[in-house]
Write a structure and sequence with these properties.
The protein is mainly beta. The protein contains 3 helices and 16 strands. The protein has one domain (2-255). A 16-stranded antiparallel β-barrel has the order 1-2-3-4-5-6-7-8-9-10-11-12-13-14-15-16.
């Protein structure tokens, strides 16, 4: 039971905080291998698909519905120099799987509050992108009704990201991520005001094992206490094909001709 709930919470975390970033690789490897799309499976279930242009830049991220709920798609636009100039987040709202929600509730995990009723079929969330000397310093996300959703502040050439979450104009959560490279975290910590007004905090750190410059595994620590270790597997072209921890994440690729 404890392991099952841990897996569920990890999956919710990926949906909420965008933790899929650790599965990404440098744009150049997608360009060299002419990757057009990457499908991400949790076991045999398709979780998300990322699409790339011929320069290896992500142009579309599509997250499949969780428990039959919303399907999220993010679009990215670049200028001729490869600089991100536009980003749009669209959400297709679908009725959640009531049987699955009921089953999880019996296991001690009530997710019903995560699904809002009476939402439009399609919601479009827009972004405001700010640069300073060609360096991304701020990314602001707005809800479909124009209210503030999240604000990302970038420091130290993107190696530090401070994210603020807003609800009804009030900040209720903040996280700080310190990166060792473009995608992999060294530290991830922050706080959240829960619906019952209780303030919770987290403080994660990560240690990596390399082989020939490629990450073979990494371990997460919670307040210094060792937690799960994730092992990475790659194909002969250096593309990530498996990530194994509590469960197995698989990655399949489609290519430009």
């Amino acid at each position: 039971m404890k392991t099952t709930l841990s897996i569920i919470f990890l999956f919710i975390s990926m949906l909420t905080f965008g933790q899929e970033k650790w599965t990404y690789q440098n744009d150049n490897i997608y360009k060299i291998n002419k990757v057009k799309a990457r499908k991400w499976f949790n076991g045999n279930k398709l979780t998300a698909t990322t699409f790339y242009n011929k320069e290896g830049q992500m142009i579309k991220f599509q997250h499949e519905p969780f428990l039959g709920g919303e399907q999220r798609t993010i679009y990215f636009e670049y200028n001729e120099k490869g600089k991100l100039i536009n980003q749009v987040d669209t959400t297709r709202n679908i009725k959640p799987d009531k049987k699955a929600l009921k089953k999880l509730k019996k296991m001690g995990l009530d997710l019903s509050s995560n699904f809002r009723n009476n939402r439009p079929e399609i919601e479009v969330l827009k972004f405001n992108i700010e640069y300073e000397d060609d360096k991304l310093i701020k990314l602001t996300k707005f809800n479909a009704n124009g209210t503030l959703n999240t604000v990302d502040h970038f420091e130290n050439n993107g190696r530090k990201q401070v994210r603020e979450w807003y609800r009804n104009g009030e900040k209720y959560q903040e996280s700080i991520t310190e990166y060792i490279d473009d995608f992999h975290k060294e530290k991830y910590y922050g706080w959240e005001i829960r619906p019952n007004l209780e303030k919770s905090k987290w403080n994660y750190s990560f240690e990596y094992v390399y082989e020939n410059g490629i990450i073979k595994e990494f371990t997460r620590f919670d307040n210094g206490q060792k937690k799960e270790t994730t092992k990475m597997e790659y194909d002969n072209n250096g593309l990530l094909i498996k990530a194994i921890y509590y469960t197995t994440e698989r990655f399949e690729y489609e290519y430009y001709k």
